[in-house]
Every structure is written in structure tokens, then in C-alpha cells.
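Protein in question kept underneath.
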Amino acid sequence: MKMAPRFRTIRIGLLLLCILGLMGHPDIHAQTNTTTQTVTALPDEEALHQELRGLKKVYEDAVNSGDLKTLAPMFGPQSTGIIALNQEFHTLPEMEKIYEDFMSMLGPDHVYRVSLNPERSLIFGDIAIARGTSDDYIKSKGHEFNFQSHWSAVLRRENGNWRMINLQATMDPFHNSVTDFIMTSIKRVYGGVGLAIGLLLGIALGYLIFGRGKKY
């Protein structure tokens, strides 16, 4: 009877040692530290949305001013993109070359403006999926064009900056203000040519029929 309390004391002591041993185990500390880092590594979600909204003005200012160098922080080793003209780029210099070719195609004294209409992004940790539309305006050679395109982008947050992983921009290739203008111009030109050819054929046919009739 006198031994029972001692055994209980021993068992309690062993239990406390086991608990203290587990608390001091390196794996337990690693898991605790990892959890803490995951929680504190990123700002709250609304702050991340604010950062992404800030990229809208950065992009618009870069394109509308013609100076794309301010987009450099958005590029990384894995960046890639395809714009509406089915042109692919991986680096900022490649994107600048596409932009310069497009501007030269518009001719001198042109005007080009773009305005983004982003939807609310989807955020998964340090990955964001952004999407929306853009309103584009072009004035070239006395003609004005307004059209809209759709775009989506995947970005990763690294060292406080959002870097582009992939960008896609598309537009209707058959029904937009540019193609409508081209088709109208073609119809106007070839419609006039067709009318002239029809008149000439009508005159020739009338001569063959009625002119010969007079001879006989």
C-alpha cells in the first residue's frame, strides 16, 4: 500500500518528461516556425489587391507614354506573353520591339491610348490571376478607331514585387472598328471598279447587239 503513491509519482514524472521532450524536438519547432512564416510572409488579401490595382496605372502610363521601361520590374526569367496580333515575347526588349513595330505601322502623328478595366483578381498565396478588358483608341492618317480586347495574366509576388508569368490578350479578328473600316474601304474601291467594269461591258454588249443589227 505504501508503494502505490511512489509508482504514481514516477508515472507522472515520466509523462512530464515525455511532454517536455516532444516540445523540445526539432521537428516540432520546425513545424511551428513554418506555420508562423506562412502566416506573416504576405500582407492581408486586401493589401495584395491594392498592389495589383496599382499595376493598372503603371501599365497604362507606360503604353500611353511610349516608354515601356517602367515595366521592367514586372519581368522575370519565366515571363512570357502573347498579344492580340499573335506576337509572342519573353523579355522587355522583345515587347518593346513589338510595340515599336506597331507604332511605326500607324504612321506619323498617330495617337494610341489604352485603358484597362480589370476585374477582381483571384489570389492564391503568392500567385494572382488577373483578368479584364481594355479599351483601345487609335487615331491614324485622319481616321479614328475604338475597339476592345480581353486579357488575362498570371503573376507571382517575389520580394514585394509582382512579376508576370504569363500574359494573354485577344480580340475579335473579324468584327472590330479596324477591320470594319478596311472592309468598307475595299467595298468602296472594288464596288466602284465593279460598276465601271459593268458599264463598259454593257456598252460593249449593246454595241455588239444593236450596232451589228444596223449593218444587217
Residues 45-172 form a domain with the Nuclear Transport Factor 2; Chain: A, fold (CATH 3.10.450.50). Residues 14-40, 185-191 have pLDDT under 50 and may be disordered. Helices lie at 3-23, 26-40, 45-65, 92-106, 177-215. Strands lie at 80-82, 88-89, 111-118, 122-124, 127-140, 143-158, 161-170.
